Amino acid sequence: MINVERIGEHEFVATNGRGASVRIGRKDQQGSFSPVELLAAAAAGCAMVTSETLVLRRTGGEQLSATADAVQSESGNEVISIPVTFSYDLSGVEDAEALDTVVRRAVEQFCTVTRTLKQSAAAPLQLPTPLQTAVDPL
């Protein structure tokens, strides 16, 4: 479970149960991620976590990075695509196409975030309900 707390005007901190935290704010706010940037980071991060062992074992390297960008609709109120681009050294790889196939298959089968984005997961919003006040019987 993730907990998000307001720490200032348009400033929030998300924390998990393992003690990690990330600052969230508006897209132009210094020192924080916007919610859309976090979505892009989640897509790229999930793809990397899913394929890290495959890539590093087959390339024999240690370098692996990715970029992601959230492509928004004309209104700016909807993300329509999150292209993720990997970067790693193929110089020691004999069959780059085979590696490409294996990495794509792993991400498509096991990356929870990108699989969820493809299915357009629901995000139901639960708001607090007014407290029920007891009627004084007297």
Please explain how this structure is put together:
The protein is an alpha+beta fold. The chain folds into 2 domains: 33 residues; 86 residues, K homology (KH) domain (GMP Synthetase, Chain A, domain 3). The protein contains 3 helices and 7 strands. Strands 1-2-3 form a 3-stranded antiparallel β-sheet, with no helix packed on it. A hairpin with a 2-residue loop joins β1 and β2. The longest helix has 25 residues. The radius of gyration is 21 Å and the shape is elongated. The chain starts with a strand and ends in a 19-residue tail after the last helix. InterPro entries: KH_dom-like_a/b (IPR015946), OsmC/Ohr_fam (IPR003718), OsmC/Ohrsf (IPR036102). It holds the Pfam family OsmC.
Topology of this protein?
Blueprint: E1 3-8, E2 11-15, E3 21-25, H1 35-59, E4 65-68, E5 71-72, E6 79-81, E7 84-87, H2 96-110, H3 112-119
Antiparallel strand pairs: 1-2, 2-3, 4-7, 5-6
Pfam families: OsmC (PF02566)
Shape: elongated
CATH homologous superfamily designation of the largest domain: K homology (KH) domain
Strand elements, count: 7
Class from helix and strand fractions: alpha+beta
Q: How much of the polypeptide forms β-strand, as a percent range?
A: 15-25%
End-to-end CA span: 44 Å
Q: What would you say about this model in short?
A:
The protein is 35% helix and 21% strand.
Notable features of this structure?
single chain, 138 residues, alpha+beta, GMP Synthetase, Chain A, domain 3, 2 domains, three-stranded antiparallel sheet, two-stranded antiparallel ribbon, elongated
